[in-house]
Amino acid sequence: MGSSYHEQHIPRLLHRLGFSVQRPRKLLARADAEAQQQWLEVRLPAIKRVADCRGVFVFEDEASFWLDGTLHQTWSPIGVQLRIPTYGLRKTAHVFGAAAVDDAAFVYRPLWLRP
Questions:
Q1: Residue 5 lies inside a defined structural domain of this protein
Q2: FRET partner for 92 with CA separation of 20 to 30 A, picked from 3, 12, 57, 65?
Q3: Does residue 2 fall inside a structural domain?
Q4: Spatial strand order in the sheet of 106-110
Q5: What pLDDT does residue 26 have?
Q6: pTM, two decimal places
C-alpha cells in the first residue's frame, strides 16, 4: 500500500539516501572546453610575451550581465552539483571594462553612466 511520511522527515530520508541540498551551477550550453583550454595554454602566453616586448597590453570589452533570478536550491546526490543549461535569452545590463594583462588591474564603468 506504500508508506506515508511527515513532510519534515523527507529531508532526513533524502540525506540518508545520499542526497544533499545544493545550488545548481549554470553551464554554457554551447561552450567548447577544448577551445578554452587551447586559449589558456597557447594564445594567452603568446599575448603576454608580446606585451612584455612592446608595452602595456589591455583587454577591453563590453559585458552583458543577465538580470534573471539566481538559481535556488534543490536536492541532488552528495557531491554532484546540478548543471542547468542556459542560452542567455534574458534581459541584460551592459558594462564596459578593461583588464591589464601584466598586473590584472581592472577598470569598469556601467554603460548607463556614459557622459
A1: no
A2: 57
A3: no
A4: 58-66, 92-100, 106-110
A5: 82
A6: 0.35
